[in-house]
Amino acid sequence: MDFKRLKYFQVVVEEGAISLAARQIPLAQPALSRQLQLLEDEVGTTLLTRSRHGVRLTAAGEAFYRDTRRLLGEFDQAKRNACRIADGQFGQLRLGVTVMHLWVPQIIGLLNRFRERYPEVTLKVESLLSGPQIEAIRRGRLDAGMLFFPPEEDSSLCCHCLYEDHLVLVTSASSHLAHHPPRFLAELNDENFIWFDRSATPVYHDKLIHAFQREGFTPHVVQEGTDNATMLCLVAAGMGCSILPAMTMAGAPEGVVSHRLEDLNLVLPLMLVWRRDSGLPAVRRLIEIAETESLATHEVKE
Fold this sequence. Notes:
This protein has helices at about 5-15, 20-25, 30-45, 60-85, 105-115, 130-140, 175-180, 200-215, 230-235, 280-300, and strands at about 50, 55, 90-95, 120-125, 145-150, 155-170, 190-195, 220-225, 240-245, 255-260, 265-275. About 45% of the residues lie in helices and about 25% in strands. Strands 3, 4, 5, 6, 9, 10 and 11 form a seven-stranded mixed β-sheet that branches. The model is unreliable at about 295-300 (pLDDT under 50). α1 (about 5-15) packs across α2 (about 20-25), α1 crosses α3 (about 30-45) and α5 (about 105-115) packs across α10 (about 280-300). It contains ten helices and eleven strands. Belongs to the LysR transcriptional regulatory family. InterPro entries: LysR_HTH_N, LysR_subst-bd, WH-like_DNA-bd_sf, WH_DNA-bd_sf. It holds the Pfam family LysR_substrate.
């Protein structure tokens, strides 16, 4: 069915006369009458009665007018929604982020500014480790992610650095390490160590292990945690020590303390990662805000 004919019909009903509607559209009166006749033929019944005083709806016409008015309203709304989605101002944005990063001021600020600027875009945030985030982005289950060390050889991904963190030794406040903090990694060789399984996030795992090995440290792993929050709880329970990003201490349970080591200097860049071929405009809007934030921070430092 031709939507233009439906709109003509609406104008004729609202104006009450074909001649008035023809001037309003604008369209020649005979052409408008022809369009109304084609519409009635398509519907299969008379919608309007014509007289020298104007037009009047039939019973079928009244029902058709109500239904098509709602239909045209929904069609106009669908067009507006499509335009807003194309401009990144409507729809849904699926983001991955680790549990601990949700407390980082830079991340909170980025999400808040996106919500303020694009309130009609629904943010769906999923907590995942870096490795699973990469897989979810590749498969299209996530639109973007915030993670450490995306694979450098993957040309299908793009990334932007949100901020840089550093590593700290995390111990129970009642442990001997807390009372006599070590200065170097090698001093931890005989300590019970809490770590995570490599399969969870292999790139991040390998970079940390290589950094440890360069300084003569081989972790004596006695317990594995599935994520940073779990590892902090295990440390708090006195099951051993661990090495974690400094920002995790923002969510550390009571009785956990951190220490800087002189040779623990691996930089942890937290990256915003997305697919190079992503066609979702809301992703581009998030990237624009992140890049603007980084530029402003850089200018302030200078």
